[in-house]
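[audit] Reproducing an earlier prediction to check determinism. Same input, same settings, fresh worker. If the tokens differ from the archived copy the diff job will pick it up downstream; this log only records the rerun itself.
[audit] input (401 residues):
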Amino acid sequence: MDIFELSRVLNRSNDSKIVLLVADGIGGLPLEPGGRTELETASTPNLDALAAKNVCGLLTPVLPGITPGSGPGHVSLFGYDPLEYQIGRGVLEALGIDFDLGPNDVAARGNFCTVDSAGNITDRRAGRIPSDKCAELVEKLRSIRLDGAEVLLEPGVEHRFVLVLRGEGLGGDVEDTDPQATGVPPLKPVARNPESQRTAEAAAHFVAQAAEVLKREQPANMLTLRGFAQRPLIPTMEDVFGVKTAAIAVYPMYRGLARLVGMEILPKVANLEEQVRCLREHWDRFDFFFVHFKYTDSTGEDGDFDAKVRRIEEFDAYLPRFADLKPDVLIVTGDHSTPAKLKSHSWHPVPVLLAASTCRPDRVTRFAESDCIQGGLGQIEGRYLLPLALAHAERLQKFGA
């Protein structure tokens, strides 16, 4: 019996509410030896007060030493093994903008980027161009035509867009063209297996034509493609864990992740204020709410330590608004760490706080990495967080006689 089968056996219904607040990439590192992380630097009186009355720990999103992408990090938080349920970023972006992927579709996440006269990338995100500029550039790219594949394009937020290649005989296993570095040119799309060769060729033709379309644009004069994939089949959270679920997220990718596991995507929101309001408006309809805050991640990726501190403090300031709804279980954590020092995701475990009347409080009085490592939850794999939430919500029956 695997954990999904066990959960289906043990699930029981009640009126409890579970709220999962995800501050994306909240974990960090000191800039200097002996210094403090972004979370340790920030003033977080509300998180600290909640930690002092409840239980904390550290989460390993995938496995020790493995740096997770946003997909695996969230899949783990939703109770799935990220090694078993691997989801391409392109699928997540497409689902996040309500694009209905079919069986002959391969989706990829696109990033507009900046290249110099030698074709080397100088900015992987083209200065995070405004979303209306992204839409304008996508409209220009819609002039591209390919033999053997239909090209479908949709703009996303800031520098992001979705590319869908539609046609017979397309596989989804193609290498990214984003080298994840500056000072080098975009990579060529390479098929990882024979079934994906046609997709790689179509992507290469698309990129070549896109380079011509964009060459006079600034700063977005080129693009990269990531996460080629076809839509996988995944059991829903309601089927596995017996909870009716909803998502409140600003960015398309995270709405896509939620939709893939069967969550209802609540109306679009732009900030924490609107997220709190949306949560209140839909409070009676669902058992489990996933609320996503992006900017602790993006500031970390930008290498802006002080900006990440400010975003953590912004998140903390809104915590009482969520807690005022009195969920039976309130969880605060991240999907991975994004230290400003590294300007990228990292393998470091993520602080987690679980607040419930059924928890066993520990001695942690501050929500920070060096404190949470001493917490009563210990250090656990991320996929076990949801069963813990269900248990604290008294939604799991006893196992065995």
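[audit] rerun output stored. Observation attached for the diff report: The chain is about 30% helix and 20% strand.
[audit] end
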